[in-house]
Amino acid sequence: MTFSGWVATLAGWYVTEIGRQPFIVYGLLRTADVASNVPSSMIGLTLALYVTLYLALIVAYVTVLKYMAEKPDEVLAEDARDRAVTPAGAMTTASVGGNA
């Protein structure tokens, strides 16, 4: 379910943008009149750049999620030691000394 929201947003954006192109109306405007003069190699290049960018963003997203989900064993052990030494709700010298 991690990517479902992201995929839904991206798919909705694509549908919206594609839906904004209704200017080619049968019988009123010919396709040749609205066709782009941009060479196909430039269109292919921009598509490749967009795909590369989105793949890089997905990799970064997954990497950050994995990093956030992993808590090192040393930190877990240190937290357990701190909880064992200091009773819940007790004030420590670090918390008292910081309020001057």
* Annotation field: number of helices: 5
Uncertain parts? none
How large is the radius of gyration?
Answer: 28 Å
Shape: elongated
Rounded mean pLDDT is: 78
Strand coverage percent: under 5%
Q: What structural class do helix, strand and pairing data support?
A: mainly alpha
Largest sheet: none
Secondary-structure element string: HHHHH
Number of strand segments: 0
Polypeptide structure, described:
The structure is a single chain. The chain is built from five helices and no strands. The protein is mainly alpha-helical. The radius of gyration is 28 Å and the shape is elongated. The two termini are 47 Å apart. The model has no long low-confidence stretch (mean pLDDT 78).
Write the layout of secondary structure elements.
Blueprint (H helix, E strand, L loop, with lengths): L3 H16 L11 H4 L5 H30 L3 H13 L7 H5 L3
Short description:
The protein has 100 residues and is an all-alpha fold.
Task: List the keywords.
single chain; 100 residues; mainly alpha; 5 helices; 68% helix; 0% strand
